[in-house]
Amino acid sequence: LEKMTDLVAVWEVALSDGVHKIEFEHGTTSGKRVVYVDGKEEIRREWMFKLVGKETFTVGATKTKAAINIDAVSGFAYEYTLEINGKSLKQYMENRLKTTNTWILNLGGTDYRIVLEKDTMDVWCNGQKMETAGEFVEDGTETHFTVADHGCCIKAVSSGKRKEGIIHTLIVDNREIPEAVE
Which chain positions lie within coiled-coil regions (predicted)? Predict the structure, then answer.
């Protein structure tokens, strides 16, 4: 079994449509480069004479731009870094914490991952963009949607503090769901 013998890096990337696994094979003797996203081969290059460089591809339903940088560290040692939307994975994830809220919950024995994109107010559930209805209420806004016949609502309320901004709370069946940390 030849598959994955030259596996040099694995990353987990949390996007709105789910958590994606990116695997990279780099054959430093054959010059081979293979990129897998969620187990599916996205790029395969055999006999690359240049062992350093960059491989670009997309990830997930939103076709998010990704790139793997291959840099020589010393002699025959290489460093592999993943970029998402032009930012290092660390910078991307730190920025994502500011621009999204994520909740993980179980309804009727099924796990659901709900993501709110604060800039667009788009709501994603297990990889699907949800149909939502927004309404203004006395203390802010409510975004309503349904998951597995359960009424869901994301309340957006001002914190009253400029630094904190707006607080988003997910309510399912009249109970508040704690935010997940990914």
Answer: none
Beta bridge partner(s), residue 96 = none
Q: Which fold has domain 7-85?
A: Lipocalin (2.40.128)
Please tell me the distance from the alpha carbon of residue 141 to that of residue 157, in angstroms, as a whole number. Answer: 7
* Residue 90 three-state SS: helix
Distance CA 165, CA 140 (A): 12
- pTM, whole model, 2 decimals? 0.84
Considering the chain, tell me which residue range(s) the CATH 2.40.128.180 domain(s) occupy: 7-85, 100-177
Which span out of 3-12, 105-114, 161-170 was modeled with the highest average pLDDT?
105-114
How long is the chain?
Answer: 182
The region that residue 28 occupies, defined by phi over 0 for left and psi between -120 and 50 for alpha, beta otherwise, is alpha
Per the CB < 8 A criterion, the answer to whether 59 and 84 are in contact is: yes
More confident site: 128 or 31: 128
Question: 20: how many CB neighbours lie within 10 A of its CB?
Answer: 19
Residue 64 has pLDDT above 50, yes or no: yes
* Per CATH, domain 100-177 is 2.40.128.180: yes
